[in-house]
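Protocol step 4 of 5: obtain the predicted structure for the target chain.
Materials: sequence only (see below). No template structures provided, no constraints applied. The aim of this step is simply to have a reference model before the mutagenesis design in step 5. Sequence pasted as it appears in the construct record:
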Amino acid sequence: MRWDRFFEDLEDQLDSEWEAERAALDTEAERLRLARVPLRDRLVAMARDTRAVSVALRGAGAMTGRVTRVGADWFALAGDEASARVTIVPLGAVVSVGASLDTVLVSVRDAQPGTSLTQRMGVGFVLRDLVRRRSAVTARLVDGTALDGTIDRAGVDHFDLALHEPGTPRRATSVTGYRLVPFEALAAVRLAEADDLA
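Step 4 output (structure tokens):
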């Protein structure tokens, strides 16, 4: 009888040690997984969430909205239902992303790269689509400048913006100037009207 209790105690100790070791291994495995998660993958998880986030941008202040799409090096931020305007944000312009605890935890737990197609769509791809649509935009630069106009061309690392008054169509007579803007100087591109990019 005494030996039975002795062996039961040994089994309990061994079980406790194995549980502690497994918990430590699980914790370390989670730390290693998190060490490999880029911001982009967390934004992909946020795009499946309906809660708004606040995004601080280099030189362009903060914007609030829902993450709706994520590309290779950009994401789309949709405003509230009142404006529903979409802002394209290059990842390189992000200073921080503010979110609720639930959104932060979802973005950690469900982080993943998304589809292979979205992983290949760079900011140049999106800007070339805006060229095709002839959409009026406000380009916010990392130095705080805001430029209103229409994107005429988008190259491999820059775009051409024809400047004109917001709310007016791009006509040769309404263009007041042109700017060539490197992608690295871009903090955000806000569409003048609600668009189906969201």
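Step 4 remarks: The first helix runs from residue 2 to 35. The first strand starts at residue 53 and ends at 57.
Proceed to step 5.
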